[in-house]
Amino acid sequence: MSENETNTNEFPDRLSVDPKSPYYNAEILSRDIGIRFKGAEKTNVEEYCISEGWIRVPAGTAKDRHGNPLTLKVHGPVEPYFKDKPSS
Fold first, then answer.
1. φ, ψ for residue 53, nearest 5 deg
2. Per-residue pLDDT tens for 24-50?
3. CA nearest 78: which of 41, 44, 28, 25?
4. For the chain, is the Cβ count within 10 Å smaller at the N or the C terminus?
5. Nearest to 17, CA basis, from 57, 52, 53, 54
6. Would you place residue 84 in the very low, low, confident or very high pLDDT band (cuts 50, 70, 90)?
7. Is 86 left (phi over 0), alpha (psi -120 to 50) or beta?
């Protein structure tokens, strides 16, 4: 498998929903993805990193000067999964 090819059943170590981010991956985001963080389902995750154990979530309705939501980095175990695939 080349560097540009990705297995669509595996998650990258780091993924972002922001198209301007170098960690954005439209192919994976086109599938229905869920994130379990500290055992709870999270629906507002902007970015995650599995190896470092953190997620970025919006800080309420606050925006930066470019109109993007301000985010908080929260540390803990991160478990991404595909919602269309039955979990065991």
1. 70, 60
2. 999 999 988 999 999 999 999 999 999
3. 41
4. C
5. 57
6. confident
7. beta
Q: Which residues pair with 47 in a beta bridge?
A: 16, 56
Residue 81 is inside which H or E element, if any? strand 78-82
* CB contact at 8 A, 79 and 35: yes
pLDDT for the residue numbered 69: 87
> Distance between CA atoms of 14 and 12, rounded to whole angstroms?
5
The pLDDT assigned to 2 comes to 38
DSSP 8-state class, residue 50:
T
Question: Among candidates 29, 34, 31, which has minimal Cα distance to 45?
Answer: 34
